[in-house]
């Protein structure tokens, strides 16, 4: 462990940084450098990263292909900040995104740059849905997480995060996510009944917002047929369907968009985290053209034009999304994690697992054990976080570019941590 440097660092951060800091409490090291799937602290100790910036580093730390494009751009004094002015970097990104992501998937969206973060994308999606429909209510789902600003919080399920708003969070209606009731038989007959019943008390919603896999909510995976049922319901009831792909997009589940497996086409899609490629702040709101009713400047933000992120985003798409190699590799690695979890679940009582692609969760019946496992894993040099309403799930989000050897090494470390905690 990095005792001397950790103590010195803790003094600095304790003195100057807000109590709201969190990840540094679970991983008390003074990190210095990072390449690929490894971080190194100031004492030279290496840590395998199964966290990947909460999904913002799908292509790893300091990916050399993306770094080269970024350094070239900076070296030639390429524009860094430009609000929404037209720049060469933005035009190149838009063309590449349209040709290599949208067109091959038969998707027709216009791109809005709402600001640098996922919650900016969600806020713009909610505002636009209300503007288009003239309605206020938004349907969200149990255990959802959509961001920390007020609109995004209103459609987030976590009680602790909602309480931080300090005011009532209104105009949203939570509904049960797939399998919330403990079985796989839920459908939307009940939902449609209350929508059609003038005595139900439910205001006609403007939109439904959903994650195909709830990462922060505990790696809850929606079935493809459930998502198709939801999309069909939205069409019948004239509600817009918003898919929040902030964490699960950009290949996390295998395909570029997590909703591709279900064969649905959302009205609005939100992207952030790994869309910038290099971990640079960037977010997109994708809008069906006929819904793009914004007035110029009606939704804006000072940092919506992060040109270095356009450069690394384009480089990531060019390199990783010109064919299906990354998708195939991601699904194979997801299967490897799932099989490893199968073995752990056979060996220890009180464990189960779930996930899709390279987002996988190991679920502990005794919730505090998940935190203990992550702590023991950190002592052995592995970064992994918990999720779920009681932090009962060890959530794995390795970089999609992690090597097979690194993945195996990390899973071995995790197994040792589970063994120590569960005996």
UniProtKB/TrEMBL annotation:
<dbReference type="InterPro" id="IPR012773">
    <property type="entry name" value="Ectoine_EctB"/>
</dbReference>
<dbReference type="GO" id="GO:0019491">
    <property type="term" value="P:ectoine biosynthetic process"/>
</dbReference>
<dbReference type="Pfam" id="PF00202">
    <property type="entry name" value="Aminotran_3"/>
</dbReference>
<dbReference type="GO" id="GO:0030170">
    <property type="term" value="F:pyridoxal phosphate binding"/>
</dbReference>
<comment type="pathway">
    <text>Amine and polyamine biosynthesis; ectoine biosynthesis; L-ectoine from L-aspartate 4-semialdehyde: step 1/3.</text>
</comment>
<keyword id="KW-0032">Aminotransferase</keyword>
<protein>
    <recommendedName>
        <fullName>Diaminobutyrate--2-oxoglutarate transaminase</fullName>
        <ecNumber>2.6.1.76</ecNumber>
    </recommendedName>
</protein>
<dbReference type="InterPro" id="IPR005814">
    <property type="entry name" value="Aminotrans_3"/>
</dbReference>
<dbReference type="InterPro" id="IPR015422">
    <property type="entry name" value="PyrdxlP-dep_Trfase_small"/>
</dbReference>
<dbReference type="InterPro" id="IPR015421">
    <property type="entry name" value="PyrdxlP-dep_Trfase_major"/>
</dbReference>
<dbReference type="InterPro" id="IPR015424">
    <property type="entry name" value="PyrdxlP-dep_Trfase"/>
</dbReference>
<dbReference type="GO" id="GO:0047307">
    <property type="term" value="F:diaminobutyrate-pyruvate transaminase activity"/>
</dbReference>
<dbReference type="InterPro" id="IPR004637">
    <property type="entry name" value="Dat"/>
</dbReference>
<keyword id="KW-0663">Pyridoxal phosphate</keyword>
<comment type="similarity">
    <text>Belongs to the class-III pyridoxal-phosphate-dependent aminotransferase family.</text>
</comment>
<dbReference type="InterPro" id="IPR049704">
    <property type="entry name" value="Aminotrans_3_PPA_site"/>
</dbReference>
<keyword id="KW-0808">Transferase</keyword>
<dbReference type="GO" id="GO:0045303">
    <property type="term" value="F:diaminobutyrate-2-oxoglutarate transaminase activity"/>
</dbReference>
């Amino acid at each position: 462990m990095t005792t001397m440097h950790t103590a010195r660092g803790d003094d600095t951060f304790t003195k100057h940084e807000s109590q709201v800091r969190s990840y540094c409490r679970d991983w008390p090291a003074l990190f210095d450098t990072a390449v690929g799937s490894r971080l190194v602290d100031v004492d030279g100790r290496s840590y395998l990263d199964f966290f990947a910036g909460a999904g913002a580093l799908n292509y790893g730390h300091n990916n050399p292909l993306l770094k080269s494009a970024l350094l070239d751009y900076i070296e030639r004094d390429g524009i860094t900040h430009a609000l929404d002015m037209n720049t060469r970097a933005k035009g190149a990104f838009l063309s590449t995104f349209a040709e290599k992501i949208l067109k091959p998937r038969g998707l027709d969206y216009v791109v809005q740059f709402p600001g640098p973060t996922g919650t900016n994308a969600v806020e713009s999606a909610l505002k636009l849905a209300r503007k288009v429909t003239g309605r206020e209510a938004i349907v969200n789902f149990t255990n959802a997480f959509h961001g920390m600003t007020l609109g995004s919080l209103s459609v987030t399920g976590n009680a602790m995060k909602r309480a931080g708003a300090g005011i009532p969070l209104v105009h949203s209606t939570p509904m049960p996510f797939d399998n919330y009731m403990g079985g796989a038989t839920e459908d939307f007959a009940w939902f449609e009944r209350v929508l059609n019943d003038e005595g139900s008390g439910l205001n006609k919603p403007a939109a439904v917002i959903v994650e195909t896999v709830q990462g922060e909510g505990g790696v809850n995976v929606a079935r493809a047929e459930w998502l198709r049922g939801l999309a069909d319901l939205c069409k019948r009831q004239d509600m817009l369907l918003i898919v929040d792909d902030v964490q699960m997009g950009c290949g996390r589940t295998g395909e570029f968009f997590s909703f591709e497996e279900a064969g649905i086409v959302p009205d609005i899609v939100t992207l952030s985290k790994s869309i910038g490629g290099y971990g640079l702040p960037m977010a997109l709101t994708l809008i069906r053209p006929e819904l793009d009713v914004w007035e110029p400047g009606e939704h804006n933000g000072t940092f919506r034009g992060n040109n270095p992120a356009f450069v690394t985003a384009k480089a990531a798409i060019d390199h990783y999304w010109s064919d299906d190699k990354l998708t195939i590799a991601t699904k194979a690695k997801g299967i490897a994690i799932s099989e490893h979890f199968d073995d752990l679940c056979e060996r220890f009582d009180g464990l189960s697992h779930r996930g899709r692609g390279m987002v996988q969760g190991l679920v502990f019946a005794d919730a505090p054990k998940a935190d203990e496992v992550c702590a023991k894993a950190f002592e052995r040099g592995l970064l992994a976080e918990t999720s779920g309403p009681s932090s009962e799930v060890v959530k794995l989000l390795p970089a999609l570019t992690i090597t097979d050897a690194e993945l195996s090494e990390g899973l071995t470390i995790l197994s040792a941590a589970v063994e120590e905690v569960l005996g």
